[in-house]
Specification:
single chain, about 350 residues, alpha+beta, Chitinase A, domain 3, 3 domains, 4-stranded antiparallel beta sheet, 9 strands
């Protein structure tokens, strides 16, 4: 099958053996190439549904450029195309098996589902103009009836695969623990800190000394929250009234000029050694809940000041499996593995129930 697809899809040049024969004229070569390029054959049969080379070509054509860019030699390119053709043919065959399984059951797809899908396409892509929609189908070499069949098959396939995925969606704590123990090396981490930060930049009408004084005032207020309200008023900072005792996050949202401002200055968990040396040195002197002095950075024409707060810490070593972030990461991976395995087992079962032949 592989060599057949390979030669049929790539329109290869003559082999070494044929090179010894009489060379064809330009007209003969052009006619032969045209014939090969437009030839179509049945490449496989999936439960009575033929899969043609043109079916495979249609799916490979959009990625030929990408494959070409990812290969260095013609040999690598030819091998990559052949592999893509083989995988595509297998994928199309599996899709037909899934559809055949649905049709063999007592289930039926309501016509309204297909109608709604087509109407949405006409509305979204053709501004509700059905004539333009039909014209686009003709330009693509298909018909409204064939397109309707395509949509029906797509909905059936998505429904059937969705059923299997939903059945394997649940992940219990035992599976999470099992994955963690088998892949514990993936959860080794460096010493980490959870931090918030506020970045203060020089105002248009400010002198450098004034910016430094403003940064120092904010650092002092953050270390003494009872001063925050007065400091907000002093620097005429607008914003919604703060309910309760003002926090670092409240100030960050109103004062900071960096990308974390909208999240209250929350920069998340960071590897301590991966941070800027100045920030790392400052954080090492802080206890959880403490706020730094303004850290000056000379960037461009005017310096900026960064105030950091140490919100939490994690020692170097294995991440705790009960950490919400770790559990969420493992849950996603276990779910993905479970769904992939379930779908593969299901497809293997379908192959025993339905006929597939590659030619």
């Amino acid at each position: 099958m592989k060599s057949f697809l390979f030669s049929s899809l790539l329109v290869l040049t003559a082999t070494a053996a044929s090179a010894q024969l009489k060379q064809p004229t330009l007209e003969e070569a052009a006619a032969k190439r045209w014939s090969e390029m437009h030839a179509d054959r049945i490449a496989a049969d999936a439960d009575g549904t033929g899969i043609t080379l043109s079916d495979v070509r249609r799916q490979i054509d959009p990625i030929v450029g990408q494959i070409r860019a990812g290969t260095k030699t013609d040999a690598e390119f030819d091998k990559a195309i052949a592999q893509a053709a083989e995988e595509t043919l297998k994928s199309i065959a599996e899709r037909q098996l899934v559809i055949a399984e649905f049709r063999a059951s007592t289930a039926r797809l309501p016509a309204s589902y297909i109608d709604a899908d087509i109407e949405e396409t006409v509305r979204r892509d053709f501004n509700g103009d059905r004539n333009r929609f039909v014209a686009s189908l003709r330009a693509a070499g298909t018909t409204p009836l064939a397109y309707r069949k395509f949509i029906e098959d797509r909905i059936i396939f998505e429904y059937m695969v969705g059923q299997i995925r939903r059945a394997s969606w649940d992940v219990n704590p035992g599976k999470i623990r099992e994955y963690y123990e088998k892949n514990k090396a993936d959860f080794v981490r460096k010493e980490q800190v959870k931090l918030r930060q506020i970045t203060i930049t020089q105002g248009a009408a400010e002198k450098p000394a004034e910016t430094a004084a403003r940064a120092a005032a904010w650092a002092d207020a953050l270390r003494h929250p009872e001063k925050i309200a007065a400091t907000l008023e002093r620097f005429k900072v607008a914003g919604k009234p703060i309910v309760g005792t003002p926090t670092f996050a409240d100030v960050a949202m109103r004062v900071s000029t960096d990308d974390f401002a909208g999240k209250g200055g929350d920069a998340g968990w960071r590897n301590l050694d991966d941070l800027n040396a100045t920030v790392t040195t400052s954080l090492k002197t802080l206890k959880v809940g403490e706020v730094s002095e303004p850290l000056k950075f000379d960037v461009g024409a005017a310096p900026i000041y960064v105030i950091v707060s140490r919100e939490g810490e994690r020692p170097k070593g294995y991440a705790d499996v009960n950490d919400p972030e770790v559990m969420s990461e493992i849950e996603g991976k276990v779910r993905q593995i479970g769904m992939k395995t379930a779908i593969q087992n299901w497809l293997n079962d379908l192959r025993t129930k339905h006929h597939v032949q590659f030619r």
